[in-house]
Amino acid sequence: MSKVNILDDLKNQTNDKVEAIKKILPDCFDKDGNLIEGRLKEVLTNNFATPDTERFTFNWAGKQKAREIAYKTYCEGTLKVDKGRSKNFDETQNLIIEGDDLQVLKLLKNSYKGKVKCIYIDPPYNTGQDFVYNDKFELDIQKYLIETGEIDEETGEQLTDHIQKDDGKKHSKWLSFMYPRLMMAKEMLREDGVIFVSIDDNEVHHLRLLMNEVFWGGVC
Fold first, then answer.
1. pLDDT in tens, the chain (220 residues)
2. Domain boundaries in the chain?
C-alpha cells in the first residue's frame, strides 16, 4: 500500500482546494496565506506539544493549550429541554441555552456550522473586579514564570537575566479563555456573517490581535 505525504500533496492541490482548507484551519496559514507545516502536523496528529518557552509577544503563556482545547471534540454533555421554564415552546423559533459557553458551542457546532448570520458576545473585560462571573484573569506569578521559562519548576532557579513579573501574566489567561470561544464562533458564522464584541480598554488591543489571527488567519 502506497503512502502519501499530505504536506507534499497539499502543495499540489488547486487554489480552490487550498482556500477551502484555509477556512477550516485558518491558524495553520500565515498572514500571507503560506502553509505553516508544523501547525498542520499538530492538528492532523493531535499532538500539541508545548514549546520549551512561551513568552508574551503574541505567543502568550498557555496559547498552545488554548489551541488544543479549541480543536478538542466535546461530546460528554447533552442539551435538555426545560419546558417548565419555557414560554410558547411549540410556537417560538428562539432558544435560550444555559450552560458553560464553550461546552454549549461545541455541542451546537455540528448543527449550526456555517449557518449563523450574526453573533454578539459580551466577554469578561478582565478588570479584576467581581461580577456575576469571574472577571479577573491573572495567572499566579510563580506559575506564569514557570510557563514562560523564566524560572525552573523543580529548583525555582532563575533562568533568565531579567524577570519582568508583570509582563503578560494578567492577559495570558484571558487570551487563553477567549481563543477557543472565538474559534467556535468562526466555525459557526456564515460566509456573510458578522460578529460583534463588547470590550473596554483593558483588553481591546489584545482582542483585535486575537480576532485578526482567528478570523483572518494572520499570525502575529
1. 455 466 666 666 667 878 888 888 888 888 778 888 888 888 888 888 877 766 656 788 888 989 998 998 877 788 899 999 999 998 998 999 998 888 899 889 889 999 999 999 999 898 876 444 555 655 565 665 566 555 566 666 654 444 444 446 678 888 988 999 999 999 999 999 999 999 999 899 999 999 998 998 755 4
2. 14-216
DSSP 50: P
SS3 category, 158: strand
Contact call for residues 213 and 36 (beta carbons, < 8 A)? no
**CA gap 61, 168 in Å, rounded:** 8
Q: How far apart are CA 174 and CA 206, in angstroms?
A: 10
Rounded Cα gap, residues 62 and 136, in angstroms = 16
Structural Rg of the chain based on CA atoms: 20
Phi, psi of 133 (to 5 degrees): -110, 165
Q: Which residues of 178-210 are buried (b: 16+ CB within 10 A; e: fewer)?
A: bbbbbbbbbbbbeeeeebebebeebbeebbeeb
Query: Do residues 204 and 125 touch, judged by C-beta distance below 8 A?
Result: no
Question: What is the Cα–Cα distance from 211 to 116, expressed in whole angstroms?
Answer: 17
Dihedral Cα 20, 47, 187, 94, nearest 10 deg = 150
